Structure formats: C-alpha cells, structure tokens
Amino acid sequence: MPPRLTANRIGPKLAPQEDMKGKHLLIGLFVAGFVLLANAGSLQRIGHTTLTPRHNTITNADGSFMFDDKGMYAAVIDPTNGYAYFFGSYLVKLDITGNLPVKVGTNIYTGQSSEAAIDPAAGYAYLPKYAGLINRYALGAGTNSPSSAGSLALTGSGATSIVIDDSDPNPANHYGYVLCSGTPATVVKVALSSFTAVSSVTLNAGENNYAWGEIDTKNGYAYFASYILFNAPPSRKSSKSN
User: Fold this and answer.
1) What CA–CA distances, in Å, run from 66 to 50, 60, 75, 148, 213?
2) How many Cβ atoms sit within 10 Å of the Cβ of residue 80?
3) How confident is the model over 118-158, as pLDDT tens digits?
4) In which element (H, E) is residue 118 found?
5) What is the phi-psi region of residue 220: left when phi exceeds 0, alpha when psi lies from -120 to 50, beta otherwise?
6) Would the pTM of this model clear 0.85, i.e. be above it?
7) Among candidates 48, 125, 37, which has minimal Cα distance to 81?
C-alpha cells in the first residue's frame, strides 16, 4: 500500500486577522525574481541574485573547509522593512526593496532546515531543528547582520515545523505553534515574548512524523501535514486548544 498524505488541524484561540505568511523552496544558491503584472495577467522573470560566498571554498582557522551551503531550503520575508532571510546551511539576509535582491551583512551558520518562521514586529526569525530545538535569530536592524538569539529545547525527537500567530499588534502577545515528532507527535504552544513553552496537545497514536505547517489566524487553526503511512483509516482530524 503506498503512503497516504495526511494532515492534522490544530485550533488554538487566535485573534481574527488574516495571515499573510508565504513560503518558498529554493534548490540552488540563487534567488530568482518574478513580478506579477496585475492587468496583463502574466508573469515576467526579471533576473536573479547569486548568493555568495559558497562556503565549501572557504577554510576555518584550522584549515578545514566550512560547511557546504548545498542550496536554500527555507525563506521568510519582512515586507514592512524590506528584507528577506534565506536559510541553507547559512542564514543570508537580503535587501528586497530594489529591482533585484541584494545581500547585506554577514552570513551566519544555522544548519539546514526545511521550515522557518518570522515575527517581524518582535525582530526575530525561528528555525525548527530535528534535535528537538527551536533556534531563534535576531533579524538585525537595517543592514546589520542577523545573529543567534538563543535556543529552546522541546519534547519529542525533533521540531519539524513552526507557525506564528502575530495577529496581535503587541509582540508580547505573539505565539508560536511547533510540531514536534514523537510517538505520537505533539504540538507545543510557545510564548515568543519569553521564549518558553506554555502548553501542548498530543496527537493520536501512530501520528508520529510531520514535515510542514501553515496557520490561518483569521479562523483560528494551524495545519500540519505528513507523508507517513498511518494505520488508522483516512479522516480529517482537528482539535482546539486555548
């Protein structure tokens, strides 16, 4: 029997505001630019930006080569301030206010992850890691480089996805919802202002491994998808947590 695509819906109590979160998957060390022509109804490629340096050509102090970038796996955007943050093996900050993205600041090593989330009002980006960690990065004001801003250890074998409810104008009331693989998996609610876990919900038996998440703050649900074969019959699953 081939694996079945499944999804879980988690319903935290969220403020009624439509989420505008976007995700991008890039398979190379460049960023391609496109513009939507609102009236013409067509797309036009306007160019690309090559992200440098390629770190496998750079050596550490002991002479060993740095970790290879190998491509870009996740990206988040701060549209208010005009910056994008791309994650491969390294975090790269780009100024996106011009015709093409321009790299600013210094790249920092983060390790690979296929998911990331951003809270622009608070000034942080978050990267889930398979070791069960959420790594936090300060975005850096203006053209300043991003920097590491601590880690939060969660239960389960790995944090694979994080979505953020930043619908409240006050960053002190922003929350992250983290999918942690386990037997079964759990979703952990994190108060981002204090960077602490405040509650969690456990999924059904056999629902162990997940990879992607999205949030609908207007209707109060988070969605997490899996490609794992479950023994349970197909069903749409949902739960709410306050």
Assistant:
1) 19, 6, 22, 18, 31
2) 8
3) 999 999 999 988 778 899 999 999 999 999 999 999 876 67
4) strand 117-119
5) left
6) no
7) 125
Q: Which residues sit opposite 241 in a β-bridge?
A: 12
- Quickly count: other Cβ atoms within 10 Å of residue 109's Cβ: 12
- Going 21 to 26 to 32 to 36, the CA torsion angle's sign is negative
Spell out the residues 6+ positions from residue 179 whose beta carbon is closer than 8 angstroms to its own: 128, 159, 160, 161, 162, 185, 186, 187, 210, 213, 224
Q: What's the rounded Cα separation, in Å, for the pair 146 and 98?
A: 20
From residue 39, alpha-carbon distances to 30, 35, 42, 43 in Å are 28, 12, 8, 11
Query: What residues contact residue 217 under an 8 Å CB cut-off, 6+ apart?
Result: 14, 15, 16, 17, 18, 19, 165, 166, 167
* Mean pLDDT calculated for residue range 17-28: 36
Q: What domains can be seen in the chain, in order of their start residue?
A: 6-241 (2.130.10.10)
